[in-house]
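Notes to self, BTB domain-containing protein:
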Amino acid sequence: MVDSKCNCPNYYTSHADSLLTQLNLLRNRRVFTDVVLRAGHRAFPCHRAVLASCSRYFEAMFSGGLKESRDAEVNFHDSLHPEVLELLLDYAYSGSLFSLAHTVARQITNLSNG
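result:
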């Protein structure tokens, strides 16, 4: 059978889903994480390989000889809101925009009720 979304065999998509799920579990347990992203007062342990594989920004940051490619932490200070970074990481580790869509819908509801 072939998955209609990517025109690839179903065993491939189930393997990819399984891989992302396992990487996310490792991240949540802080196993094999090799960088900590900081935004505001929050810290997010991550895997450089996951970030670089889903974002050219992180790929350039971690492979281009920048200071961040050697440091154990990357601090965005207040230039990136922690909730935004959390959503980006959730997407990187799941491939799902559900939490992003849910958060945007919640904020729109809050604005319309405020």
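- Strands lie at 2-3, 8-9, 35-39, 42-46, 73-75.
- The chain has a mean pLDDT of 85.
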